[in-house]
Amino acid sequence: MFFVRIALLALSRIVVARIYFSLAYSDYRNGTLIYNACKYKRAAESIFFDESIWNEARKKGDAASRELIDRSVERSDVTVFLVGEKTYVNK
Question: Where are the domains positioned within the chain?
Answer without folding.
Answer: 2-89
